[in-house]
């Protein structure tokens, strides 16, 4: 299986990081800026991020932060955390001078916050990214049909009844042309089925949270993430 990359976002402690890494996570993301989608205490300091990074043995540390800032300061923050990749805290395009500074420092960019709705035209999903020169995208993180609690069942069973709906085949085609991990309503009972149906994706993404600020935000509680990873 080549679609075995596991990304876990909003980890808040070295203990959580060690557990999810031990269960297969290869990208561990910490939030240095508050995520407007969630109402909890999962934002960490640079010092806490560095501690989490030191707890990792093989997984790479990703920092999610506001990238609309001074490029020099961003590089200092990333260096202080010891991260090798960054992710915008919201679905925004980092300014070109920030992208250049990150590229010069050898820091990859993960573009997250992408949400694919059931009625989205596949050609629109990455339109805003594909039109940008020197995007420097190391990875894309897309949450699929987050407006549905049972998003996988809807995509598998309901979408095929309507040709204009977003389909599993559309997701595989997007993943074939863009390095992508996907967020869905993963459970111990469906995660293997999902990966078998999505051979083109790089893997799965799980976003930790305790409480959402809005409907349609994709998230999992820590205990649920552990159970999903144990099922793989």
TrEMBL record:
It comes from the Bacteria. Gene3D superfamilies: Aldolase class I. InterPro entries: Aldolase_TIM (IPR013785). This is Phosphoribosylanthranilate isomerase.
């Amino acid at each position: 299986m080549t679609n075995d990359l596991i990304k876990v976002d909003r980890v808040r402690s070295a203990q959580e990081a060690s557990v999810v890494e031990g269960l297969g996570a290869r990208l561990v993301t910490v939030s240095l800026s508050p995520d407007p989608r969630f109402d909890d205490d999962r934002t960490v300091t640079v010092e806490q991020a560095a501690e989490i990074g030191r707890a990792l043995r093989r997984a790479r540390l990703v920092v999610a932060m506001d990238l609309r800032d001074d490029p020099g300061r961003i590089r200092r923050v990333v260096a202080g955390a010891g991260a090798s990749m960054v992710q915008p805290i919201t679905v925004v395009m980092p300014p070109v001078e920030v992208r250049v500074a990150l590229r010069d420092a050898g820091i990859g960019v993960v573009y997250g916050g992408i949400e694919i709705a059931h009625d989205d035209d596949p050609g629109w999903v990455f339109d805003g990214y594909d039109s940008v020169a020197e995007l420097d995208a190391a990875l894309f993180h897309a949450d699929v049909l987050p407006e549905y609690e049972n998003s996988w069942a809807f995509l598998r069973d309901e979408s095929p009844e309507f040709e204009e709906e977003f389909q599993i085949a559309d997701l595989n085609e997007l993943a074939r042309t863009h390095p992508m991990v996907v967020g869905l309503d993963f459970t111990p009972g469906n995660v293997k089925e999902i990966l078998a149906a999505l051979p083109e994706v790089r893997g799965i993404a799980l976003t930790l949270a305790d409480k959402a600020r809005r409907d349609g935000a994709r998230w999992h509680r820590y205990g649920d993430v552990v159970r999903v990873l144990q099922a793989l």
